[in-house]
């Protein structure tokens, strides 16, 4: 691997914090409070809707038709996952209609702003932790799975070969694209990657705390 190993390194300490987070550990032990998981799924529904938009912006800026097609397909997938997976989980958990939390708003705004104002490379670095960290979390948990069938289903979604293949395609595109980039653009990518990785930790943590706005809307 090329530049993607440097990207992973820029988020490696954060990944270690994600791996041991009580929310993630609770998925595989089965001890995670269902109310925290419901909060997470409801927030992830907001997240994936905006993530799909960010992916379409990355698709629009891709320098090759293959890149445009790849990220366009992934945007469509993210919307499909939002509908299918989440409708399924929320049916079982009891539907929840909660507004996007401060952390969800911050993370999705970061993705959209970086995709819109930055280069293709910058947008790519910002959306990458979402793919890569989830595939790693899935792979880390898949052998132990979970005694809770709902959590086992979540783990299987991200720990399977299907999701890993998607991530591998994106890593290949990233390594190829980075070959032609100078140090300033690479530094920006490392920074965006590390920022999004920290938001990934914050997203788990916000669900664990069941974060809401400190001031309700009037
Ligand atoms: C917050 C978040 N990050 C990554 C993924 C992976 O798709 C997801 N569903 N939600
Ligand atoms: C990263 C990601 N997460 C859910 S869907 C998707 C895009 C690729 O299917």
UniProtKB/TrEMBL annotation:
A GO term for molecular function: thiaminase activity
Listed GO CC annotations: cytosol
CDD domains: TenA_C-like (cd19365)
Catalytic activity: 4-amino-5-aminomethyl-2-methylpyrimidine + H2O = 4-amino-5-hydroxymethyl-2-methylpyrimidine + NH4(+); thiamine + H2O = 5-(2-hydroxyethyl)-4-methylthiazole + 4-amino-5-hydroxymethyl-2-methylpyrimidine + H(+)
Enzyme class: hydrolase
Signal recorded as keyword: no
Pathway: Cofactor biosynthesis; thiamine diphosphate biosynthesis
UniProt keyword annotation of Hydrolase present: yes
Pfam families recorded: TENA_THI-4
SUPFAM superfamilies in UniProt: Heme oxygenase-like
Keyword terms of this UniProt record: Hydrolase, Thiamine biosynthesis
Tree of life domain: Bacteria
Biological processes annotated in GO: thiamine biosynthetic process; thiamine diphosphate biosynthetic process
Residue span, Thiaminase-2/PQQC domain: 17-208
Annotated EC: 3.5.99.2
Purpose: Catalyzes an amino-pyrimidine hydrolysis reaction at the C5' of the pyrimidine moiety of thiamine compounds, a reaction that is part of a thiamine salvage pathway.
Similarity field: Belongs to the TenA family.
Protein name, entry field: Aminopyrimidine aminohydrolase
Organism in which the protein naturally occurs: Actinomadura namibiensis
């Amino acid at each position: 691997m090329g530049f993607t190993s440097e990207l992973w390194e820029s988020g490696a300490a954060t990944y270690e914090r994600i791996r041991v987070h009580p929310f993630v550990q609770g998925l595989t032990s089965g001890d995670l409070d269902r109310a925290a998981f419901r909060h997470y799924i409801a927030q992830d529904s907001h997240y994936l809707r905006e993530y799909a938009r960010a992916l379409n912006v990355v698709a629009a800026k891709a320098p090759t038709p293959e890149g445009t097609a790849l990220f366009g397909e992934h945007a469509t997938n993210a919307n499909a996952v939002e509908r299918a997976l989440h409708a399924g989980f929320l049916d079982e958990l009891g539907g929840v209609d909660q507004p996007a939390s401060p952390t969800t708003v911050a993370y999705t705004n970061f993705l959209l702003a970086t995709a819109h104002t930055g280069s293709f490379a910058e947008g790519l670095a910002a959306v990458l932790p979402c793919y890569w960290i989830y595939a790693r979390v899935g792979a880390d948990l898949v052998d132990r799975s979970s005694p809770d069938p709902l959590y086992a289903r979540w783990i299987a979604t991200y720990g399977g070969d299907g999701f890993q293949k998607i991530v591998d395609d994106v890593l290949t595109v990233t390594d190829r694209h980075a070959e032609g980039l100078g140090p300033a653009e690479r530094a920006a990518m490392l920074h965006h990657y590390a920022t999004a990785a920290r938001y990934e930790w914050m997203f788990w943590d916000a669900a664990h705390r069941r974060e809401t706005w400190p001031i309700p809307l009037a």
